[in-house]
Structures are given as C-alpha cells and as structure tokens.
Amino acid sequence: MGLQITTLSENTAGLGGIMAEWGLSILVESEEINILFDTGQSLSASHNADLMGINLSQVDKIVLSHGHFDHTGGLKTVLLRIGKEIEIIAHPDIWAAKYSRRQGQEARYIGIPFHRQTLESLGAKFSLSREPVRLSDNIMTTGEIPMTTDYETIEPHLQVKEGQRFKPDKLLDDQALIITTGAGLVVILGCAHHGVINTLYHAQKLTGVEAIYGVFGGCHLINATEERIWLTIAALKELGVNKLGFGHCTGLAASAIMAREFGERFLFNIAGTSISL
C-alpha cells in the first residue's frame, strides 16, 4: 500500500516560505483515502498546503485528535479550501469547555475557537464517536485510549469547565490514527495526552498486529520528568519501532534525547516534511 505522510503544520519549519505555528496538522494520503489529521492553530495548514502544491479539495475526511485549539483552530480556513461537504470524525468531548489553569495564572480557554454551527455552515458534518472508527480497509481511529502504564499521566492544569466549576480534563477525546501496512502499524499522534506507549499498546490490541513500523506526531513529553522520558524510550525500543517522527508537544529536550538514542530511525517532524512509506 502506497502511503504519503505530509506535515502541514508544526511548531517549526525548514523550507523557505513554510509557516511555523504552535500546533499540528498531518495529511495522510493512501491509495484508499486521503485524511487530514488535525488542522493546526490557524492559517498554517492551508498556507503550507498551497505552498507545497497540495489541493485540500482532494481530502476525503478530517479526523480530529482532540478538542484543543492548536489542533482545531485551522478548521475554518481548511473547510474553505476544501469547498465541499466533508465528514469530521472525532470524540464527543471535543466540544467540552477546555481550559488551562496553571497556578498563579488566569484560567485560559484552550478549546475549539469556533461555534459548531459556523463550521457546519462551511460544510462540516461531525461524526462523533467514543469507539474506534474504520475509515478504510487499512485505516482506523483508536477511539478512547485506556491508560495502562503507571508513568504516563495527564497534566493537572488541563481542565474542563462545567457551569461555574472546573474539574480535571480526562481528555477522553484524545485519539490517534492507525494505519495497517505490510511492514507493520503506522500510528499518527495528535498530542498523545494519554501517553504514546498507551496509544501504541491500544493500537496493537485493536488490530491484532504486533509490529509497529512508524510513529509520527506529538507525544506530549514537553513537561515530562527525565524518568518518564527514559521509560518511554525504553518502551519504544522494546516495541521495535523502525521510524519515529516526533515534534510539536514532544518538546525539544525529549526530541534531542530520542534523536541521539534512535539515530537514523528518528526525524524531527517539522512543517513541510513529507515521507513516503
């Protein structure tokens, strides 16, 4: 199966004219279907697609990894580029009132920056499910990801507002994309708030495939302890992953350690990166 993975939006950029922006958007093109996984924070995904000669009207479905603004803020401009009715697959909790509440700081809204009706008027057809969704014979979403490791946790400043009260966000909407290839699984992460290793274990369980060929996206180690980083690296080595393309919320420190530990198997997955598998 031919597979092209193109990062349209990420925190950093390497090619002239490519826009960098805190967030993530990855285009997955296969012989079966073209999927836009997340849309970045604002204009970057659309801008970079135009610059790279990518026609977003050829996208068949959009998948949202979760409801944070840096993965959904590009929805409006993306929908305008797509210019047709399109299914958006996500978890129901993407519409929760998501906030960041750090000690000593004002609560800051970090959820989807649009009203649902606005996006629907531009062609969005939301298909919300807590369960895995099969997009083609070889591609599916994870649905809700169980937390099974003892070192992967959700940051406490991530909260949801219900009425006038705040409570921890369990981030049940956190999900990934699983692609089954002849060489093993390819997993596309948004932020992996439930943990990259939990996500990979879940992908194995869902598909019955043990081999993991590649993992791309963000794995939210930006504020992780050194212990968690090394436990994650140990687990990735044990899983035998062949290609790691991390960026966004992975953090520079964790990415630098992984680059050293995995050598040629690791790449900094910046905006403009396009990989053929």
Give the CATH class.
Alpha Beta
Count of domains? 1
The class by helix and strand makeup works out as: alpha/beta
Beta-strand content estimate: 25-35%
- Tell me the CATH topology: Metallo-beta-lactamase, Chain A
Q: Please trace the helix and strand order, writing H or E for each element.
A: EEEHEHHEEEHEEEEEEHEHEHEE
Instruction: Supply the CATH superfamily name.
Output: Ribonuclease Z/Hydroxyacylglutathione hydrolase-like
Strand order, main sheet: write it out. Answer: 8-5-4-3-2-1-17
Write down the Rg: 17 Å
SS elements, strand count:
17
| Regions with little confidence, pLDDT below 50 for 5+ residues | none
Number of helical elements: 7
CATH architecture: 4-Layer Sandwich
Percent range of helical residues: 10-25%
Could you explain the architecture of this structure?
23% of the residues lie in helices and 26% in strands. By secondary structure, it is α/β, with parallel strands linked by helices. It has a single domain (3-276), classed as Ribonuclease Z/Hydroxyacylglutathione hydrolase-like (Metallo-beta-lactamase, Chain A), CATH 3.60.15.10. The protein has a seven-stranded mixed sheet. A six-stranded mixed sheet has the order 9-12-13-14-15-16, with helices on one face. Strand 13 (184-188), helix 5 (196-207) and strand 14 (212-217) form a beta-alpha-beta unit. It is globular.
